[in-house]
Target: Kelch-like protein 3
Amino acid sequence: EEKVFEAVISWINYEKETRLEHMAKLMEHVRLPLLPRDYLVQTVEEEALIKNNNTCKDFLIEAMKYHLLPQDQRLLIKNPRTKPRTPVSLPKVMIVVGGQAPKAIRSVECYDFEEDRWDQIAELPSRRCRAGVVFMAGHVYAVGGFNGSLRVRTVDVYDGVKDQWTSIASMQERRSTLGAAVLNDLLYAVGGFDGSTGLASVEAYSYKTNEWFFVAPMNTRRSSVGVGVVEGKLYAVGGYDGASRQCLSTVEQYNPATNEWTYVADMSTRRSGA
Model:
């Protein structure tokens, strides 16, 4: 959505005298509430075209109020500016990244649901199995894993338009059998196994800065952990701690606002690799 906003501003500024009258009408279709709060404050609020247009200032105020609401209340707001855009021209596909056959492989395949067909696409730069894989900001990320010899901290990102993988900033720690998820435009790498022990550490990646940074560690070491995002919280489910030599039934919840992990109700069954 940042690109949509910037495109509107660039278009107006190109011929400001004749195009300024269209400013409010165009901004009505920019989904400001879905932009990161820092971007709203540092970029949108400081834009002169916004400052000088009362209707546009109202759109900005609407967006700022949206960010003040709890996640569950945001879901109750129904207007075009709070609804994420849905691509209309991209095919619906599923991508399978790396794996073992029986050793770690570079192969990547793409399944086209409409055509009921699998196609080979660009291979990974290096062999990788037991990796975390997520979709974020229009790209597929392959995070960590095992190359057949070592647990790795490398990360590759796939551009579907170019059919090309690119290596980006590596994680701080080596980790395979990790959990990976996206929350608030950050990619989280949760737990995993570094080759000698299970990990409680958690890292987050910003695609805007191409940097990894540690967040609060979990209370329990977890490899082969299941992760998911629900209503603005990150959950780490089960896994294997390596100490008790048993799978785990415990579940932890991460709150990015407080940078804290807390236990929630246990599952009734121990499980890893979920």
Q: What stands out?
A: Helices lie at 2-14, 16-19, 23-27, 37-44, 48-51, 54-68, 71-74. The mean pLDDT is 92. Residues 93-264 form a domain with the Neuraminidase fold (CATH 2.120.10.80). Residues 64 and 104 are 47 Å apart (CA to CA).
